[in-house]
Predict the structure.
Amino acid sequence: MRALVRSQSFGAVIGVVLMLAVFSIVDFSGWWRSQTLANVAHFSAILGLVAMGQALVIITKEIDLSVGSVYGLSGVAFITLEPQYGVAGAILAALLIAGLVGLVQGLLVVKGRLPSMIVTLGGLFTARGLIYVWTGGTVNNFSEAARSNPLTRMFGGELFGIEAAIFWMIGLCIALNIMLWGTRFGNRLLATGGAQDSAESRGVRSDHVKIATFTLCALLAGFAGIVTLADKPQTHVTLGDLMELEAIAAAVIGGCLLSGGRGSLVGAVLGAFIITSFRYELIALGAPSSWFITFVGVVLIVAVIFNQSLARRAGHSV
């Protein structure tokens, strides 16, 4: 219990428990339905993939505002390029585009010594503009052959009645946690965000670490876009609009400190679950859409205060 309290994801765990308690009181029959939980879990998995990438960037003391647009650009690339390159080729091309965006942004931040907020804000507008220029405002749907392709079903189908996105999210969460806490790169990533000067004095190439992290973040956002379109092969040019704000909120709610060096990928997934659950439940209760925005803002501020307090108790400077 002491280890749980000191962990970065403790706030998100408390948030999930409180949220489920409130939902059980307010709307027990509506919330605890298999269809409701399945829908929430599916969309939480999609947002969770993006939030994990965002969490990695935040841990390095940077931020990526472009993930929503990269998510949309990769999804549009996947569905647009499929007639020319097939499902497999379109997947590879979409991931290549996403990785290239992340790589360029990482290089601009590190080599150009530019603030990541400005670079990725430019990336947000650039990627979104590319979607409009590329598609002319209209995106075609998948053909029936593409929908029935084994790769499409693998990314967007179901296994034992559970959406594939959930399995992908769990698998990647396990792999990324092993990378973060059990590999040399993960140690260097944490050190870069926690004390960059000290890390560099010990031979850590923080520039390489940040470039790799920006690239990985973009790849996760692009992969989430592919998974989304494989499940529902129709889209529009606004796909992923404002998703970057939800991903940042999920990462912060999950325990990431904007001062870097501390964060939790499991917490980011739990944060995504909290955000998605409240959106779904507010819609189910007929509340105005503005209530969701208000909720995210309030919870984000509370999460920052709580996480900073928890970090100080754990001896982490903030």
Q: What stands out?
A: The chain has 14 helices and two strands.
